[in-house]
Hints:
By secondary structure, the protein is mainly alpha-helical. The chain has one domain (about 1-180): Multidrug efflux transporter AcrB transmembrane domain (Multidrug efflux transporter AcrB transmembrane fold, Up-down Bundle). Helix content is about 75%, strand content about 0%. The chain is built from 6 helices and 2 strands. A two-stranded antiparallel sheet has the order 1-2. Helix 3 runs antiparallel to helix 4 (about 45-75) and helix 4 packs antiparallel against helix 5 (about 80-110). The longest helix has about 45 residues, at about 115-155. The chain is elongated, with a radius of gyration of 22 Å. The two termini are about 40 Å apart.
Amino acid sequence: MIYLVLGILYESFVHPLTILSGLPFAGFGALLTLLVFKQELSVYSYVGLIMLIGVVKKNAIMMIDFALEAERKEGKAPLEAILEACAIRFRPIMMTTMCALFGTLPIALGLGAGAESRRPLGLAVVGGLAFSQFITLYVTPVFYTYMDGLQRRFKRLFGMVSRPSETPLIANPKTKGGVTW
């Protein structure tokens, strides 16, 4: 469902995959943390995984959206656009991650009455964010550039992009028999 919504938003089949590329790392980090702390998958840990997916996806959206904007409006190459997006959006991404991480840290520590039931939620979020944040900052730009190259190859292969030499001429009715592109 998330893929469909992102596909409609970006009008692309490729960019949602780029955004979702960090989710397996987040899930792995969450499950590894639960395993290390000998916690079982429960309803609370599933809620933590859903929260984790939301934060990781939002971070990737911030990065990809900025890169696409730089490509479209400033005419930058995909690699240049994603590197600029990583540099400029690093602080907001880290702020979002740290807020979520430190917000769920007390739950992960399991302090207070009834904390043993909520602890898997905090562990899933804290472990998943800590693990995925470091990897996602490297994986998402790489995935973005590879998927952009793949998308360009498919467009050329199936003739979806017209080359400038093949652009048809259109008669301009405002000029006297003049031809414009």
